Amino acid sequence: MERCVQEKLSALVAVCDLCVIYQPVRAEVDPKSLPLELPSKQVVVPVGPSTDPQIFGREINEQFGNMRGVILIPGRKFDKFGGCHGKGWGWYDRFLSVIPSRWVRIGICSQSEYSDSRLMLQKWDEVMDWVVVSDNGTFISHETHARGSPSRLGK
């Protein structure tokens, strides 16, 4: 990652108490491969048809809503503006709609899943604060400002 951008993202993640993390499936980038010191308190997201994302999100909010959190989010396409396309279920959109808005949202994808052009989004689509792109072991980070001032995030 570009040094100053990497330092900014690292500093933002360093003040977080909780990391909501996913288990990679198929070709998804492993979030634990990121060059970030993730918080030791981690909750693994049980994404799938048997888990209601809003119920899970409310439970996470009840248990950890007072903490500063970071959420690592996979997707099949991200843009530099924070737009995200997932797998079509809207799982993360529904989950993100009920957890603390101050938590930092980091989308993670491979270079082939990243776009400099704006993705077409629906009104219910949730956006990312950061997008980290993996390209053959190198990570490039993009701050999106999609949800406004980054100073309110993570607090």
Folded structure, characterized:
The chain is an alpha/beta fold and 155 residues long. The protein has one domain (3-152): 3-Layer(aba) Sandwich (Rossmann fold). 19% of the residues lie in helices and 26% in strands. It has 3 helices and 9 strands; from the N terminus they run H-E-E-H-E-E-E-H-E-E-E-E. Strands 2-1-3-6-8-9 form a 6-stranded mixed beta sheet, with helices on one face. Strand 4 and strand 5 (84-85) form a beta hairpin. The longest helix has 12 residues, at 3-14. The protein is globular and about 35 Å long. The chain starts with a helix and ends in a 12-residue tail after the last strand.
Low-confidence stretches: none
Quaternary organization: single chain
Count of separate structural domains = 1
Task: Return Rg in Å.
Answer: 14 Å
| Helix-strand category | alpha/beta
Rounded mean pLDDT is 89
Residue share in helix: 10-25%
N-to-C series of helices and strands: HEEHEEEHEEEE
Assigned CATH superfamily:
NagB/RpiA/CoA transferase-like
Structure summary:
The chain is an alpha/beta fold. The chain has helices spanning 3-14, 53-64, 91-96, and strands at residues 18-21, 41-44, 69-74, 77-79, 84-85, 104-110, 114-115, 130-135, 138-143.
